[in-house]
Amino acid sequence: MKEKATSFDIAHIAGVSQSTVSRALNNSPLVNQETRDRVQRIARELNYKVDKNASNLRTQKSNTIALLLFEDPTSDDSMINPFFLSMLGSITRACANARYDLLVSFQNLDDDWHAEYEDSNKADGIILLGYGDYLSYRNKLSQLEEQGTHFVRWGAHDKEHPGVSIGCDNYQGGFDITEHLVKMGHRSFAFIGDAGSHAPEFMARHQGYVDALSKHGLWTEDTPQFDAISTEDSGFHAVQELLEQEALPDAIVCASDLIAMGVLKALRLSPYSVPEDVAVVGYDNIQVSGFTTPALTTVQQNTRLAGEILVNTLLKAIAKQEVHDYLMPAELIIRQSCGSDNS
Amino acid sequence: MKEKATSFDIAHIAGVSQSTVSRALNNSPLVNQETRDRVQRIARELNYKVDKNASNLRTQKSNTIALLLFEDPTSDDSMINPFFLSMLGSITRACANARYDLLVSFQNLDDDWHAEYEDSNKADGIILLGYGDYLSYRNKLSQLEEQGTHFVRWGAHDKEHPGVSIGCDNYQGGFDITEHLVKMGHRSFAFIGDAGSHAPEFMARHQGYVDALSKHGLWTEDTPQFDAISTEDSGFHAVQELLEQEALPDAIVCASDLIAMGVLKALRLSPYSVPEDVAVVGYDNIQVSGFTTPALTTVQQNTRLAGEILVNTLLKAIAKQEVHDYLMPAELIIRQSCGSDNS
Predict the structure, then answer these.
(1) Per-residue pLDDT tens for B106-149?
(2) CA dihedral (B227, B232, B233, B238) positive or negative
(3) What is the pLDDT confidence band of residue A267, given thresholds at 50, 70 and 90?
(4) How far apart are CA A199 and CA A227, in angstroms?
(5) What is the C-alpha separation between B184 and B189, in angstroms, rounded?
(6) Topology at the third CATH level for domain A61-167+302-329
(7) Do A292 and B292 touch (CB under 8 A)?
(8) I need a labelling partner for A141 at 20 to 30 A (CA). Which of A265, A329, A338, B156 fits?
(9) Which residues of A touch B (CB under 8 A)?
């Protein structure tokens, strides 16, 4: 591998002092245009990377963590999903507590984000957060590893990439909340949420749901399931379809609280009451879920803890300490929408 | 291997000049939206890669906006105030739409943040957002201006620093919501929120409240006011004090929704009902305020619009276009907690 070009190399080739190089690269008016152009051309030819400031040159540290946000491309492009917003807040706060700045960048899964931070000194490490087709970006993780880029990701353990995944036990969460509904006496069910392999969080919740129903002999192949994305609209329309088909079950299990909000909204416009006629449960425990009428039974993803663990694991990786995958336990939050008032 | 696409290729296909391509890819407002979209689409189709370093060398642009967050030092250091979190989400989204990254940095008002971004190429401009004693950082704005740093701030117009303030009409909001309560027949009042000059947003809301009461002959010097910061706890304790003094008024005006949440919580534990015995109103229209029981009457601060205006004004300033202060109108959101159901 070739050695990195330094400002000294540029100075030598351009026949100027190092401080002139520095000024020219900063476009200082103290250096005439012709010299500026020449220095900048040589810098480009040498593939010289400007570091953000002198102290960064010495330490190679930016004291910045990059957060790459991948979004469900179908989501509303004018607002951020409340679960991600909560994670964004928690990660921002955890960075501040560690005296790091946070560089937030929206990315498309298809883009070359894995190369973006390769040599630049923009950030000391990367947090990957988002919904989307995990399988399609899995190979990019290998590239990050080859580059020696420090990163952690929000998601389930992946045996090909050990030590970089912090996630919530979605399978257990789906299982526990479904079994709770069974124990409350509910016998017919519907699941609203995509259960395909490109949405691994939802798929794991759905698998837990299926296994809980199977354990109690309640699973059948024709138990309704809707390939909904995480929006209120998806939940709203799924309920409309159930009502049209006169197929409203005893209990509706939603893959996210946002879907459950839409379900509650559709049921308020129907002759059916929650939880008397139909139980509804969500997933995430976003802030509003404690304030709905009835208050929503859900599974907590502790975003505050998640942000802390993501940032602290990344900082350990940056410090070249050993890091581990972390699977946060799923925590059932029992409120009124499932028919139980926890009393 | 195919040869790399150049900006010349894009210019040729788009039928525009190379400099228009460059501006369009940098999302310069000098290029109209339609052309920007077309150029960016062609660039994506050609899998065109901007050489970040070379391009930054030429333009001295980082394509990054810095968000400096100043916090009420008394706030809970494990979470972000929901109003700020909503602003953070909206600013992040507006940056993404403009293809800018966002560098988020928590700051203490006392720190030398005004010098931090002076010579560094970390960001093309700065957004200042936060509660705190405005008077204590006013002189730092002068220094930013002298440095030629591009910045905008969330807050009221300041005649010493024209063109950099985007804010909400807090005075009008305080006036309107109070007058609404008066028109509903309420005659005795209390205000919960700091009304000192170091909290200019709350002070303006309080002044609007006082003027509305005065207009209707309802203002007296001994109308209770509590120097509360924006937390649930502040609201909770203020109500406890009112109850102990047997001084519960007809209506409680809170300087923020978070305070109002604490007020509602304290009243739920009391023999008094909202809105039958006492009306409660908030300020901000944070997401949960539509879900409380009863739903909270409040004044909307449109964070989605605010984020867009902050980012777009800053981008104009960076592009050396003329910019203006912007005072967003206060919008009354009438729900049930004031006794009116808007019917």
Answers:
(1) 876 556 666 555 446 678 999 998 766 666 677 778 888 887 88
(2) positive
(3) very high
(4) 10
(5) 13
(6) Rossmann fold (3.40.50)
(7) no
(8) A329
(9) 25-27, 40, 43-44, 47-50, 52-53, 64, 69, 77-80, 82, 85-86, 88-90, 92-93, 95-97, 101-106, 112, 116, 120, 287-288, 291-293, 304
Taking CA–CA distances from B59, the nearest residue in chain A reads A27
Asked if the Cβ–Cβ distance from B104 to A104 is below 8 Å, we say: yes
Quick one: pLDDT at residue B58?
Answer: 41
The yes-or-no answer to whether A61-167+302-329 and A170-301 have a common fold is: yes
CB contact under 8 A, A120 and B292: no
In CATH, what class is B170-301?
alpha beta
- Structural domain boundaries of chain A? 7-50, 61-167+302-329, 170-301
ipTM value for the complex: 0.75
CB pairs under 8 A between A and B: 109
- The Cα-based distances of B145 to A31, B126, B141, B160, B166 in angstroms read 24, 12, 6, 11, 17
Q: What is the mean predicted confidence (pLDDT) over A155-172?
A: 89
The domain made up of B64-168+302-329 has a fold known as Rossmann fold (3.40.50)
Q: Do B101 and A103 touch (CB under 8 A)?
A: yes
Chain B residues with CB under 8 Å of a chain A CB are: 49, 51-54, 56-58, 60, 64, 69, 77-80, 82, 85-86, 88-90, 92-93, 95-97, 101-106, 119-122, 287-288, 291-293, 304
> Looking at the predicted structure, is the pLDDT value of residue B170 above 80?
yes
| Amino acid in the structure at residue A276 | E
pLDDT digits (tens, 9 = 90+) for A272-327: 999 999 999 999 999 889 888 899 999 999 999 999 999 999 999 999 899 999 99
Evaluate if residue A243 carries a pLDDT over 50. Answer: yes
Residue A123 pLDDT class (50, 70, 90 cuts)? confident
Kindly state the helix (H) or strand (E) to which residue B264 belongs, with its residue range: helix B257-268
Number of other CB atoms surrounding residue A295 within 10 Å:
18
Separation of alpha carbons B94 and B78, rounded Å: 26
Which CATH number among 3.30.470.20, 1.10.260.40, 1.20.1440.230, 1.10.20.10 corresponds to the domain B7-59?
A: 1.10.260.40
> A284 forms bridges with which residues in the sheet?
A300
Tell me how close the Cα of B226 comes to any Cα of chain A, in angstroms: 26
